[in-house]
């Protein structure tokens, strides 16, 4: 029995050679592309459909160059048939000489295909609705017409030596037999990618995994996926699609797009605990990209935005702060430095612990005993119990407390107003167990 206990302790205490920012002991799947996907960045196509979006030519060029610097594989542009300016903008971006391939998104129609090819794009993304609702209320065509026209458009685009993708719109409300019949037909004529689109954001991760897994067994070409965020599942759906064998993910900066938008750029990168994308994409450019687009569409980046939000790497609770100071991966699944971000241990609150105050004091070049750090922490917590305090307030208490120790004086730690003096004095007299963090 004792040897079993010893073996158990040895197993528990032995170091595990793994990425501390990883997702645990996950089982690898030979079909999974989580660590080797490509990004089709659609801020300049899907993003133009966002309620606040208006990008003039210069702004489109600025965004396109920023996306290219980030390292996206493809940049998708609005259908050049949408307007004269859309066509001119498409032609202008094609002439920039970017490393990313330039795509445009068109209806499954020969007129659109001819205009798209003439702009000089590297590829054309063809789309048509396949659900009964889309066929009845959008274009009025049946499945056989869709297959016939899709093959015609694909062959035309391929004849010009450029990439072509065919996507069904409203894929998850389409009949599975219809979908597989269409995908099989376009795969046989050599389409480069087939696209699966959750156009109304109704799909769940399990539905996504099952459909992509089935499709992976039907087609030999690449699989692109496009997920709307109406039910808040866009990032999860994209991740599940990659696990099931999808190869390409459509994104936009901050997820902007029609209604609630689509999978945000950075979402799949953040979800990939293995950070295979770290060497491929300039993840440190994500914040700059988001700031650029947020300003252009006049929105604020949400406080809880994945990776780049104000609070993404802020730690406040005492237990968390202590662990973070010892090993950041204890409470962070993402390493902020991979994205050019920094963590912040919030020490100016009633929740702070003495390890956090010790860390801050050391940043201020102040060294004290453990007992003194704990006493200083108690005074900060006493003030935080009667009013909100800022970082400057906590710093002032630390500095004044330390000067009092050095001089043997008892100067007031803070300038308090008349309403705060009595409550603060009472709080200081209360017995207080100072947490270790």
UniProtKB/TrEMBL annotation:
Give the reactions, separated by semicolons, that this protein catalyses: acetyl-CoA + 2-oxoglutarate + H2O = (2R)-homocitrate + CoA + H(+)
Q: Which residues form the Pyruvate carboxyltransferase domain?
A: 37-293
Does the entry feature the keyword Magnesium, yes or no? yes
- InterPro entries reported in the protein's UniProt record: 2-IPM_HCS-like (IPR050073), AIPM/Hcit_synth_CS (IPR002034), Aldolase_TIM (IPR013785), DRE_TIM_HCS_fun_bact (IPR048253), Homocitrate_synth (IPR011872), LeuA/HCS_post-cat (IPR054691), PYR_CT (IPR000891)
The biological pathway it contributes to is: Amino-acid biosynthesis; L-lysine biosynthesis via AAA pathway; L-alpha-aminoadipate from 2-oxoglutarate: step 1/5
- Key words of the record: Amino-acid biosynthesis, Lysine biosynthesis, Magnesium, Manganese, Metal-binding, Transferase
Any one of the GO CC terms: mitochondrion
Reading the lineage from the top rank, the first entry is: Eukaryota
Swiss-Prot/TrEMBL cofactor(s): Mn(2+); Mg(2+)
Documented EC number(s)? 2.3.3.14
Gene Ontology molecular function: homocitrate synthase activity; metal ion binding
Give a GO biological-process term. Answer: lysine biosynthetic process via aminoadipic acid
Among NCBIfam families, the record links this protein to: LysS_fung_arch
Q: Which family does it belong to?
A: Belongs to the alpha-IPM synthase/homocitrate synthase family. Homocitrate synthase LYS20/LYS21 subfamily.
Protein name per the record: homocitrate synthase
Organism field: Penicillium citrinum
The taxonomy runs: Eukaryota, Fungi, Dikarya, Ascomycota, Pezizomycotina
């Amino acid at each position: 029995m004792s040897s079993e206990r010893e073996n158990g302790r040895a197993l528990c205490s032995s170091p595990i050679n793994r990425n501390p920012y990883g997702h645990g002991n996950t089982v690898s799947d030979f079909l999974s592309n989580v660590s080797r996907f490509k990004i089709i960045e659609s801020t300049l196509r899907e993003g133009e459909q966002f309620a606040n979006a208006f990008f003039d030519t210069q702004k489109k060029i600025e965004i396109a160059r920023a996306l290219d610097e980030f390292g996206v594989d493809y940049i998708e542009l609005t259908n050049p048939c949408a307007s004269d300016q859309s066509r001119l903008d498409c032609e202008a971006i094609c002439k920039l000489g970017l490393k990313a391939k330039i795509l445009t998104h068109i209806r499954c129609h020969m007129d659109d295909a001819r205009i798209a090819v003439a702009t000089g794009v590297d590829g054309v993304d063809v789309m048509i609705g396949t659900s009964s609702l889309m066929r009845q209320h959008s274009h009025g065509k049946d499945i056989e017409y869709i297959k016939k026209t899709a093959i015609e458009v694909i062959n035309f685009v391929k004849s010009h030596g450029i990439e072509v993708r065919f996507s069904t719109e409203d894929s998850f409300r389409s009949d599975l037999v219809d979908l597989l019949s269409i995908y099989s037909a376009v795969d046989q004529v050599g389409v480069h990618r087939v696209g699966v689109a959750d156009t109304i954001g109704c799909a769940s991760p399990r539905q996504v995994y099952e459909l992509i897994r089935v499709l992976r067994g039907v087609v030999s070409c690449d699989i692109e996926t496009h997920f709307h965020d109406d039910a808040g599942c866009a990032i999860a759906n994209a991740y599940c699609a990659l696990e099931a064998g999808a190869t390409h993910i459509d994104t936009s900066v901050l997820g902007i797009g029609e209604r609630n938008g689509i999978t945000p750029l950075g979402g799949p990168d953040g979800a990939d605990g293995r950070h295979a994308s770290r060497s491929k994409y300039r993840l440190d450019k994500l914040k700059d990209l988001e700031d650029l687009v947020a300003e252009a569409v006049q929105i604020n980046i949400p406080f809880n935005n994945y990776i780049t939000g104000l609070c993404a790497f802020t730690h406040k609770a005492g237990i968390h702060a202590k662990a973070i100071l010892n090993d950041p991966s204890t409470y962070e699944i993402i390493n902020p430095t991979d994205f050019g971000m920094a963590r912040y241990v919030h020490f100016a609150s009633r929740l702070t612990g003495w390890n956090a105050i010790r860390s801050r004091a050391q940043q201020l070049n102040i060294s004290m005993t453990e007992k003194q750090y704990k006493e200083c922490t108690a005074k900060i917590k006493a003030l935080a119990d009667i009013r909100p305090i800022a970082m400057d307030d906590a710093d002032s208490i630390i500095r004044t407390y330390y000067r009092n120790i050095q001089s043997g004086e008892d100067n007031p730690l803070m300038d308090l107003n008349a309403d705060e003096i009595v409550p603060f004095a009472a709080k200081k007299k209360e017995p207080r167990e100072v947490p270790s963090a």
